[in-house]
Amino acid sequence: MYECLRGLEPARVFEIFSQLCRIPHGSKNEKEISDYIYHFCRELGLETYQDEKYNLIIKKPATPGYENAPVVVLQAHLDMVCEKNADKIHDFKTDPIMVLRDGDRIYADGTTLGADDATGVAFAMCVLEAQDISHPSLEVVLTADEEAGMSGIKALDFSKIKGRVIINLDCSDEGIVVGCAGVTSIRMTLTLKRGQALNNGKWAKLKIRGLKGGHSGLDITKERGNANLLLARIVSSLNQEFGVGLSSLEGGLQTNAICREAEAKIVYLPEQEKELEEKLAWWQQALKKEFKASDPQIKVLFEQSEPDEDVFLQEETERLLDLLLNIDCGLVAMNAEVPGVPETSGNIGVIRTEGSQVVVRTLYRSGLDSKKQYLIDKNRRLARCLGAEFMIESSSPEWEYKSDSRLSALIQRIFEKRFGKKLVIEISHGGNECGAFFRQFPDADIVCTGTQITGAHTPDESVLVSVVQKEWEMLCLTLEGMLEY
Prior knowledge:
The protein starts with 10 loop residues before the first helix and ends in a 5-residue tail after the last helix.
């Protein structure tokens, strides 16, 4: 157990959370953590099923007196978003997360923490292990690859699940979530011709640094800068004014994280250097003004670099910029019925240069499937106009809000009785697996709850000890209260 977590209560929750943080479990790398939990549950004598995608379904009988209460499904995801600062040396495939604590705050050393969703998994494992918590029959469903396409839940054998009362233990914000957006990830690939670079040219790297980034759903209304989009804007202006050559453009690690860092490699004439530096100083000031509230630490860096052999032809660079500057990136529309809730958004999450190809991966979210399909069609047509390869990488359905949820009403009663105030009810712009359950079981009663995460999908990710304690208590009280469902 990490020393910084030793002595915290509930002790078993933090012990299991510590162990999960020591097991690498980025998206599509869940075998080790899935195997660990599989053996954990088998040693408890529980019926445990593991499929080829490393999803787990675990069943635990009701405690005495709860045999006639409805079966409850506890659901969480095994994977985490792997984001780190550019100067941090960390291999998410092999290295444990270095967990730190400052008073009430738990965080990681330069990487994402993975509390999204290791806290939910730890809660589920503690309930499975506990002998002192009253509860109905339980079905714990732990899925792989939630963060990078939801391929795990798409392969899940739903016929093995009997419960229709579902508590999703993914992150919440200030209360419980009762609806979420649908999500689609799109990949567009441009094949661009390259030519010889300037013989006497000077080479440099343009870098965007200092952005906060964040969750591309939960943080999208904060108007934070997207480094991929901002770098494309800068390169476009330099291309128009100086005719710079572009060798590569790189940015972002995950489609569901607002891009914090990006860089482009360019070549220019030596006599242009002073004017080019002046232009970049202008961009620095312009972006400082644009993002003075959301990203005050934004930096535009200009660093000399080793030369490359070739660059994209000018007309090919223009094709790339046409693509990047016409993708919907950021907030597209707010929910017309629920104040303060985003309806539709886009995020250019990842750009990679691979020789003559540039790969652009964008994530779209919407609470309305028709709006999501509209953005998909716009991108398909944009790709066709520019000669780019278009592919839908993944898609997940929205989860519709039900005003008559008995589970939501029960949790609200319990919360108000325990804490003496009303519980916040939210519709989330972040996608989660509740949409897949809703599609399979339209009559299911579903609520998403879990620990509030700050800085989700960024190296600033953190969770409060006090929040973990409160949410654990609420989960136990909810299970004990299922006789009143």
